[in-house]
Each structure stands twice: as structure tokens, then as C-alpha cells.
Specification:
Blueprint (H helix, E strand, L loop, with lengths): L2 E4 L4 E4 L4 E7 L2 E7 L2 E4 L4 E7 L3 E10 L5 E12 L2 H7 L15 H22 L3 H22 L1 H5 L2 E13 L1 H114 L4 H15 L10 H12 L7
Antiparallel strand pairs: 1-2, 2-5, 3-4, 3-6, 7-8, 8-9
Length: 336
């Protein structure tokens, strides 16, 4: 925006770097360009200020498709005044020389013109599409169509407006239609989520089954090994029992042989001793064969006396002593 400083009889104008100023004095152009600074007389000067920076114009259209569905298109047009001198001649950019403000609203006129042109061609384009095509192809189609129309439009060229860029932000149907269109997609997404959940659960069940089978296989293998261990232990016990029985049999046989040999030795010893005793008895008998019986009786009595217990006192009756002496004195009979 221009800055105007008032002085008596004259005023000073200082423009901005993005504002093109046209100063007309007595029907002729005295100053024209951006960033101008000059003195002027308010009563004799005509001032116009045209912005030359890029301007953004947001657009929102509501149209109807070929299948009678309402659709909203949100777009944005970037423009600038490529020929500010021509724009100053075709639009009212005149400034108040006292306040530095525009007398009219030239930018609103430009916005209205651009909006009507864009809306006209956008609605015509949407009317040739059905809803599905409009939602999928409208942004690119509208952007291409508006770029071609606005760039080559004669009215915009006459007032010095150049189109920098056209952007289509979104193309959306009514809320109810949008919800209806979202329902199948949501259902598909939900179905995919359910399918993924089912697959995940099936995979979990499969893994649990595999784990259970592995555990069962491990238990079977452990049982088989335990059976083998029990069989091995039984075989070892039987082997130890057999070996112990064999050792016992060997020990018993050895003991029996030892006892038999001992018995045989004892019997042999008894036999030899008996034979020796018999021979000795026979020899003694042969020696005593020719001995006087009275001598034998005396020897027997001595032997008996040596084997009898000790006798402290012996009482002999006179009859007993007389009978003994008589027998000793009498000769032996043939029977004795």
C-alpha cells in the first residue's frame, strides 16, 4: 500500500516494491513503475496502484454429475497482473490522493471474474461425468481444463491478468453419499481385517497343534527311552542275579567238594587210625595171649584204677576180702 505524506500545496507518494504505480498529470503519464517515489499536487494528479505480486484466489464449487449427484470441488487459482498498465486502463485502480486508498474494489472484480469463469467450465465438465468418474478423475480433469481455459481466455488477456497456477484440492460428494460410498470400502477393510484375524488365529492354532504334537512326540520318545531303560535295568538285574547264582553255585560246589574232601580225608584218617588201632589191639592181644590170666587181671585192675575217680577211703568187709583172696589163691578153671 502506498504511503502519502501531505505538505502544504503538495504531497509525497512512496510506493511499495510489489505495487505498480501510474501517475497521470494533465492527461499524460508522469510516472509509471514499481517502487516509485515522487511529489505531486493532489488536485492535478491521477494515481493508480496495481499490485504485481502473486495473488491466491480460493474457489469452492458445487456441481451436479451426470447421474444427478451433488459434488463439491475445492480449488485454488494463483494469478498476477502481468501487464499492470493495461490493467490500470481496464479496471478502476485509482487511489485517493489524500488517503492513498482505492476508490473502488478492483481485486473483488477480478476475483468475481475468475470465479465465474472457473465455475462455468468446472460445472460443464462435472455434468459430463458420473459420480464415480468425478471422484476419481475430477481433480486432474478440472485442473487441466481450468489451466487451459484461464490461460487462453481473451478477457483475462485484455485486462493484463496472467495465470500462474491452478490447483484442485479435493472433489467430494454430499456427506450422506460419501458415507454410502465409504461403506463398501469399510466392509472390505473389515473383511480383510477379519480374514487376517482368522488367518492369525488359524496360524496360532496350527502352531499350538505343532507344539502339542512336539510335546506328545517328546513324551512318546521319553516313554520309549524309559521302557528301554527299564528293560536294560531288568536285563542288568537278571544278569547280576544269574552271575550271583552262578557264583553261589560255584561256591556251593566248591564248599561241597571241600566238605567231601574233608569227609573223605576224615574217613581215611579214621580208617587208617582204626586200622592202626586194630593192628595195635591185635598186637596187644597176641602179646597177652600167653600171659597168665592173673597177671592180666592185675593189669586190668591197674588200668581200671587209673581210670577210676580218686577214692579217699575204702572199707572192705572181711567176707569180701576173704572171697577175693580165696579166688586169687585158687588155680584157674579151664573156662577162665
Amino acid at each position: 500500500m502506498a504511503i502519502i505524506t501531505k505538505r502544504p500545496f503538495v504531497s509525497h507518494f512512496r510506493g511499495g516494491p510489489t505495487d505498480h504505480v501510474v501517475h497521470i498529470k494533465r492527461g499524460k503519464t508522469a510516472h509509471s513503475g514499481t517502487g516509485q517515489s515522487f511529489w505531486f499536487r493532489p488536485l492535478a494528479a491521477v494515481l493508480s496502484e496495481i499490485p504485481v505480486d502473486d495473488r491466491e484466489l480460493p474457489l469452492l464449487f458445487r456441481g451436479r454429475t451426470a447421474d444427478f449427484q451433488e459434488i463439491s470441488v475445492q480449488a485454488s487459482v494463483t494469478y498476477r497482473f502481468a501487464d499492470p498498465d493495461r490493467a490500470a486502463r481496464r479496471l478502476d485502480f485509482a487511489l485517493d490522493p489524500v488517503t492513498g486508498l482505492w476508490h473502488g474494489t478492483p481485486l473483488d472484480q477480478v476475483a468475481t471474474l475468475l470465479t465465474e469463469l472457473a465455475q462455468q467450465h468446472t460445472l460443464a465438465l462435472l455434468a459430463a461425468m458420473n459420480l464415480a468418474a468425478a471422484l476419481s478423475d475430477a481433480p486432474d480433469a478440472v485442473r487441466t481444463r481450468l489451466s487451459e481455459i484461464l490461460t487462453s481466455h481473451d478477457r483475462l488477456a485484455e485486462i493484463g491478468i496472467g495465470i500462474v497456477d491452478v490447483r484442485v484440492v479435493a472433489a467430494r460428494p454430499d456427506a450422506e453419499v460419501e458415507r454410502a460410498l465409504r461403506t463398501p470400502a469399510r466392509e472390505r477393510i473389515q473383511q480383510e481385517a477379519d480374514r487376517a484375524g482368522f488367518e492369525r488365529r488359524a496360524l496360532a492354532v496350527e502352531r499350538e497343534r505343532a507344539i502339542a504334537e512336539n510335546e506328545l512326540q517328546s513324551r512318546i520318545e521319553l516313554a520309549i527311552r524309559e521302557e528301554q531303560l527299564v528293560a536294560r535295568q531288568g536285563a542288568n538285574e537278571r544278569r547280576r542275579a544269574d552271575e550271583a547264582a552262578a557264583a553261589a553255585r560255584i561256591a556251593a560246589v566248591a564248599e561241597a567238594d571241600r566238605i567231601r574232601l574233608k569227609a573223605e580225608a576224615s574217613a581215611e584218617e579214621t580208617r587208617v587210625t582204626g586200622a592202626a588201632d586194630a593192628e595195635a589191639d591185635a598186637a596187644r592181644i597176641n602179646v597177652y595171649a600167653d600171659v597168665d590170666p592173673r597177671i592180666l587181671l592185675a593189669l586190668a585192675t591197674r588200668t581200671l584204677a587209673s581210670n577210676l575217680p580218686r577214692i579217699g577211703t575204702v572199707h572192705l568187709a572181711p567176707d569180701t576180702l576173704s572171697a577175693a583172696l580165696t579166688r586169687l589163691a585158687s588155680p584157674p578153671t579151664p573156662d577162665h
